[in-house]
Request: fold
Amino acid sequence: MDIQSEKTAYQALIKEIHFHNHRYHVLDGPVISDYEFDQLLMRLHKIEKMHPEWIPPDSPTQRSGAAPAERFEKTTHPASILSLANAFSEEDLRDWFNRISKIDERVRDSEFVLEPKIDGLTVVLHYHKGVFVQGATRGNGEIGEDITKNIRTIKSAPLKIPVHEKSLDIPEKLVVRAEAYIAKSDFLRLNERFAKLGEKTYQNPRNTAAGSLRLLDSSIVAERPLRILTYTVVAGNPKTSQWETLEYLRKLGFPVANVSEKCTSFEDMLLKIKKWEAYRDSLDYEIDGVVIKINDLKIAENLGFAGKDPRGAIALKFPAQEVTTRLLDIGVNVGRTGILTPYAILDPVEIGGVIVKQATLHNFDYIEEKDIRIKDRVLVKRAGEVIPYIIGPISDVRTGEEEVFLPPDLCPTCGKPVESVPNEVAWYCVNNSCPAQIIRNIEHFVSKVGMDIVGLGIKIVKQLVEFGLIKDVADLYGLKKSDLLKLDGFAEKKADNILLAIEESKTRPLSNLVTALGIHGIGEIAAEELALRFQDLDALSSAKNADIESIDGFGPNSADAVENWFALEENRNVLKKLSAFGVWPESKTNAVVTKKTFEGLKFVVTGTLSEFTRDGIKDFIKQNGGKVSDSVSAKTDYLVLGENPGSKYEKAQTLGVKVISELELKTMTEDEN
Ligand code: IVH
Reply:
């Protein structure tokens, strides 16, 4: 190859890598494997080693590894990098709308754009003739710091635009405003990595992103999972509406939040905005509100400013999810399996409309790792469905009165010594007659996934155990009305109802009873699998370890757990008592596995059957060790075809799944005999 064609090939390679980079980091849809990508990069490195004079500033290799800077240079923004006014309610939004409608009549019929208010940091990206030339922090809005080297390391920030739409016109100078952030999932991974290395973990994605962006050594920044989302063209915008601007940015190859939406009117916006708070939990980046923008940029500009805030946009802020309060004490819970878990007792504090008094501390290692001390001021987070937890202490405001917490040597309930299990961080109370464990065990037994004894809550269970009325789950079935009437708040009616609920629970299927026993690692799904294969608890208790291990989804640990549970004398006694009380469900389906002809095979049934009923064919397949699923996939082994099949048949044909009749299914099992 002559030198000129070599250079042309080099430039084409740069474009190719930019394309794949965009597919991976912006569109989340790579079209080549990581391995192939690495090969391309390696080729690029090789060429650049031979021809360093060719390397343009937008080469993908220029993303990382620049020498550490002494400090950041200051840089003046081409236009003010503004902030936003806040609203906290629909009423605030109406006030805003009325205010600006008075300034410009056109606002009344205006369209609006809703965007996530990403909880990150503003960065300003400069492109000259499509090449990334500078990146800056917001600073005071007029002058920021030049963090070009650090921005280069962010893979979702294009080094060259347009990334693939060649026909797109771009202005010579384009300045884009973006939010730099760390995704929730990346943040968890990053902290896991630091915890493993024994290094300090971070409090939240935003602070980590902020700290990372201003590191002087860009090679460290390159290891931080920073991302950007763009939302404004600060200079050089050829578009006249916000919605078109977002589309334009996306076409150029910039990442743009895809939850953003256009609203036809103010009222339409108020309707659409209602679902936004739910996005807070479903998006992989933190948002602290929604930004509402007038779509027409001319109208927005005409509205001018109130102080530093443009009138044409406003942020509807969500209630805070993180607040600080005092950690009054650390309590320790004893779980069903004897596991000890610490929890925080807090000076009560409101978070998002709920008073929080307790929060989880995960485990004892967490307390040590975060250096959380009793009486510390702590940052508490309550988000969505997650149990409130302590993010960490605010160590800067310590007074010296704080006390280091030490995990207990004795079980806080029964006072017996606690033990640790190899390879586990947890500590356990190993005393099987520890009342705390018995209570939790019974609580689990009566729960919805277990025997579903309606009305028998933890408070009643606690009293029953504390009064010595029951010692294990089987004793529930021996309770008399006179026993219940001894408890707080019990009258005839309530006692009758509970006794009825206990009696009624005898009809629960075997799978519920297996779940209710609380065998380590055997949840609802595993219990169902066991109930499918074993006729009753007798059959299960005498099952061979290997039989259990061979079930799909079971491994040596769960097989051992089942075996160990049934081997324990006290558990055998509970079973005897249950059986004597008539709590002895038998496998409801007839699908007790008798043969293994279909073992490992997945079946789907479609169309009207003539040989079997719907349930009958499923039982038949299961009895022979096979699995039945509702939809055809590449993993399906056979489609059993009845009359007038639907789309499943077509799908099976396109996927090349074997299609058989009911009769063929039957003969498959007969062949063996
Ligand atoms: S628009 C005039 N849009 O929120 C433009 N800001 O005080 C003003 N932010 O510092 C900003 N997501 O860093 C805008 N979709 C979004 C945003 C957003 C996050 C940040 C931005 C700004 C702060 C508002």
